[in-house]
Amino acid sequence: MMKNILLPRIFQPFECLEIVRLGKDNDGGYLVNKLDVIKSKKLISFGIGSDTSFEEDFLKLKSVEVETFDKSVDIDRFTHYKENVNRRSIHKILDEIPENTFLKCDIDGAEYEIFSELINYSKKLSGIAIELHGIANRDNFNEIINFISKIDLKLVHAHLNNYSYYITEDRIYVPDVIELSFTSSTNVIYNENLELPHKFDMQNNSNDDEFKIFF
User: Fold this and answer.
1) pTM confidence score
2) Alpha carbon distance 58, 52 (integer Å)
3) What is the rounded distance in angstroms from the CA atom of residue 149 to the CA atom of residue 77?
4) CA distance readout (Å), 25 to 5, 98, 146, 204
5) What are the tens digits of pLDDT across the range 125-182?
6) d(CA 76, CA 78)
7) How many CB atoms lie within 10 A of CB 138?
8) Coil, strand or helix: which one is 10?
9) CB distance 117 to 94 below 8 Å
């Protein structure tokens, strides 16, 4: 039985018939536009932990240079920088990327610090897969709405992480983490009847019910 959530209309993604899932089952996978991957010239990943399944699946579709950034781990598979991305470092990183770079971002709440830079450099990005934390906080939620409205990419997927939520005294579910994917490609259409979760979505927590999103 799914948990029903109502989100503002701005969170409704465009429909893409060429959407694919990259990354392992359940927690760690993202749905992205396949065309964004195919046209990418580079992949950069902020926040890796011990899971490189997204990057491995990306390379199966398109062989590109991969740069990863995470102070907490050592990785031999890619060009890895043992540092965390923040407001001070993001400008230099994005300034040096080629056109059509794909960005994956999971930096546990620090993503809000780099929103303005992602907006400013969005014309260089083929796509973005980003996990946003602390969305139950009203200020964070409003920042996400502002981010979606200003970035020069279209929202192509939204998925609520069922590991992170709470329930009010009135038995209302309040999610706290959302995964968003953005596209630069034109193979999308606006479908006001789009239903989520997508058929390729999986519960992050396989032992709990999925969120069904309404707009």
Assistant:
1) 0.96
2) 10
3) 36
4) 23, 30, 31, 8
5) 999 999 999 999 999 999 999 999 999 999 999 999 999 999 999 889 999 999 999 9
6) 6
7) 8
8) helix
9) yes
